[in-house]
Amino acid sequence: MRVASILLLVVVYVMLSTVVNADTKIIRYHTGEWNGLTNRDDTGLYHEIVQKIFESKGYTIEVEYYPFSRALMNVSLGRADMSGAATKDESAYITAKYPIWESRNSALFHINYLSSWQGLDSLKANPKGSVATPGISAIIGVDLYEVASRNQALNMVLEGRKKYYVDDHTTLAKLKGGDKNVVGFEGWNPPSTVKAFDWDSYVIRDVLIAPAFMVFQDTSRGHELRDIFDTGFAALHRSGELLTIYEKWGLTSKMPEVLVGD
Q: Nearest-CA neighbor of 171 among 204, 193, 138?
C-alpha cells in the first residue's frame, strides 16, 4: 500500500512537472492591433520578428489584442510576458536592448496655427486641444484627448474641433499625400468629409522622434525572454534576414539606422 502511494505521488509529480514545463514554453504576447505591424491574423512586422526569434527556440506565441495602454499594463501586472513597441521607459517593465521601430510622431494641423507652433510644447500647453488614438499619449508623454479611431481623430481636426491630430509621421504623410494604403489607418476607409477640404491648407510637423522597444516583465522569466529576444534580434540583423522582413512589410523607413553593432 505504501509503495503504491509513493508511486502515485511520483506519477502526479511527473505530470505536474510536465504541465509546468509546457506552460513555460508559452509566451503570452499582448498588443494593440496595427495594420502591417500586428494584424489580427497574427501577421505583420512585429509578429513575424517575434515568431522568428521565439519559435526557433521551441516557444509557442499566444497573442491577445487589447488597447495598447492596457497591453502594457498587463505586462506590468504579470498578466502578459511581453508587449510593444513602447518608447517610454517604465519601472514596471524592462525593454529589449535593441529598438524594433523608429518612432517619429508628428502633428497634422491647419496652416493658420503654423506661426504659433512650438512642437511638443504646443501640445503640453493644451493637451485636450489635440487629438490622437490610444497609445500616442503614452509614447509622447502628454495626456492628449484620445478617440477610438483615426477617422474620428482626423475629422475632429478637419472640422475645427481640435487643433492638432497627432500620429505616426509616415501615416500622416501618406494620408495627406492621398495614399490609400496607409499602414494602420483602419483599412483606410476615409471619412466622407475629407474630400471637401483643401489639403494644401494643412501641414505636418514633427513632435517627437524616439526609438521604440519590445517590453517584458521585470521578473527572472522576463529577463530570460528578453535575453532570448536580444540574441535572436542581433542574429537576424547580422544575417540580413531582419532587413528582408522590414522590406517585406514596406517599412524599411521604420527600421532604426543603428540597431546592432557589427
A: 204
**8-64 confidence digits (pLDDT tens):** 554 444 443 333 344 789 999 999 988 889 999 999 999 999 999 999 999 999 999
Asked whether the beta carbons of 177 and 203 are under 8 A apart, the reply is no
CB 191 within 8 A of CB 44: no
At 68, list the grid cell: 495598447
Q: How are beta strands 202-217 and 82-86 bridged, if at all?
A: antiparallel
Same fold yes or no, 2-99+212-254 and 102-209: yes
Tell me the three state secondary structure of residue 144: coil
C-alpha grid cell, residue 17: 512537472
Q: Which residues, 6+ apart, have CB-to-CB distance to 22 below 8 Å?
A: none
Strands 101-110 and 130-132: unpaired
Q: Does domain 2-99+212-254 have CATH number 2.40.70.10?
A: no
pLDDT tens for residues 199-256?
889 999 999 988 889 999 999 999 999 999 999 999 999 999 999 999 999 888 788 7
Residue spans per domain, the chain:
2-99+212-254, 102-209
Q: Which CATH architecture has domain 102-209?
A: 3-Layer(aba) Sandwich (3.40)
Per the DSSP assignment, residues forming a β-bridge with 86 are: 213
Measured in Å, how far apart are the chain's first and last C-alpha atoms?
64
Query: 29 CB contacts (<8 Å, ≥6 apart)?
Result: 50, 61, 62, 63, 64, 80, 81, 82, 83
